[in-house]
């Protein structure tokens, strides 16, 4: 029980060190009691967050997360955290939105007062472009856990995609000031800065996110982008970043989805489609954002793009 409690504390930090410690803690809890369903659920959640907050790859994290969630449910079908972790893997790895929605709703039915259940369901609804419902769920999560920076940061992201850009920016900037080591806030502000053509802000936030996640490769890419911006403006920035990031991604050390957004920002539809197909083939979790990503606005009329969105488990709205 002590290892389980320690794991719960560590994984909620969403820092690389905290998540690694949490994996060890939950694993130790399972070693001591192989029937400990809650520890399996905790381990599943850790693997899912490791993929987001560290350089751990999806093809490593998601199979382990799903196996742990499945084991937890086999031991205790009434465990809400296990259904939530399973829903996450079903959507972001297997791209099965129907099953994921059912599992998220099952988790909430089992634990209606769980902030985490409402939180993770809200992010799923965001990817499905169901913005009013996503805002409703994230507000429920925030009311249940008033201290969670992760919930507040994701609310900022939902506000951005819902078109409330000023509110999103204000919230994310407040969070950045209070907890500067939290990576998601920096990533979300970088996304906002890219969409609003604040290139210096985009690079600054990417640099802060790279520091928070201990990603040395990303730091080098940002430095190249800064040099490109100085010499050749926005296009120079994006091309300089692509020059470094494309070889890394071919070697499995970067996200194909990120390259797709950069090509799209440069107006290179074939390049964007090439890397989106690669992202899909790698089962990158980011591909579920294809339907709402501002960078892909000019691609939405392409039949191949619309098919990719369907393959990712989402659908483009008219």
Percent of residues in helical segments?
Answer: over 70%
Query: Compute the gyration radius: what is it?
Result: 19 Å
Our measurement of the CA-to-CA distance between the termini, rounded to an integer number of angstroms, reads 50 Å
Class per helix and strand makeup: mainly alpha
What would you call the shape?
A: globular
The fraction of residues assigned to DSSP E strands is under 5%
- Number of extended strands: 0
Treating each run of at least 4 consecutive H or I residues as one helix, how many helices?
16
Uncertain segments: none
Compute the average pLDDT: 93
Largest sheet: none
Give me the strand/helix succession.
HHHHHHHHHHHHHHHH
Can you describe this structure?
The protein contains 16 helices and no strands. Helix 3 packs antiparallel against helix 4, helix 9 packs parallel to helix 11 and helix 13 crosses helix 14. By secondary structure, the protein is mainly α. It is 75% helix and 0% strand.
Give the helices and strands, then pairings.
Elements: H1 2-11, H2 16-32, H3 37-53, H4 58-75, H5 80-92, H6 97-110, H7 115-127, H8 131-144, H9 149-161, H10 165-178, H11 183-195, H12 199-212, H13 216-250, H14 256-265, H15 269-281, H16 303-311
List keywords for this structure.
318 residues, mainly alpha, 75% helix, globular
What's the quick description here?
With 318 residues, the protein is mostly helical. It contains 16 helices and no strands.
């Amino acid at each position: 029980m002590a290892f389980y409690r320690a794991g719960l504390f560590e994984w909620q930090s969403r820092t690389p060190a905290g998540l690694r410690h949490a994996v060890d803690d939950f694993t130790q809890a399972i070693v001591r009691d192989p029937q400990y369903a809650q520890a399996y659920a905790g381990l599943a959640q850790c693997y899912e967050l490791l993929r987001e907050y560290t350089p751990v790859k999806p093809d490593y994290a998601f199979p382990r997360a799903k196996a742990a969630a499945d084991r937890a449910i086999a031991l205790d079908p009434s465990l809400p955290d296990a259904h939530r972790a399973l829903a996450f893997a079903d959507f972001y790895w297997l791209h099965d939105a129907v099953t994921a929605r059912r599992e998220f709703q099952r988790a909430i039915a089992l634990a209606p007062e769980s902030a985490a259940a409402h939180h993770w369901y809200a992010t799923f609804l965001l990817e499905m472009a169901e913005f009013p419902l996503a805002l409703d769920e994230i507000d429920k999560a925030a009311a249940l856990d008033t201290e969670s920076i992760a919930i507040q940061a994701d609310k900022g992201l939902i506000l951005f995609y819902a078109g409330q850009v000023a509110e999103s920016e204000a919230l994310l900037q407040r969070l950045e000031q209070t907890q500067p080591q939290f990576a998601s806030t920096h990533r979300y502000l970088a996304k906002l800065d890219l969409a609003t053509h604040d290139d210096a802000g985009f690079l600054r936030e990417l640099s802060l996110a790279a520091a928070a996640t201990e990603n040395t490769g990303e730091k080098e890419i940002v430095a190249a982008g800064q040099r490109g911006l100085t010499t050749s403006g926005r296009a120079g920035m994006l091309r300089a970043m692509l020059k470094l990031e494309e070889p890394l991604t071919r070697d499995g050390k970067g996200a194909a989805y990120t390259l797709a957004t950069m090509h799209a920002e440069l107006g290179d539809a074939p390049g964007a489609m090439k890397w989106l197909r690669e992202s899909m083939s790698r089962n990158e979790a980011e591909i579920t954002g294809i339907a709402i990503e501002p960078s892909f606005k000019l691609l939405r009329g392409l039949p191949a793009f619309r098919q990719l969105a369907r393959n990712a488990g989402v659908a483009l709205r008219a």
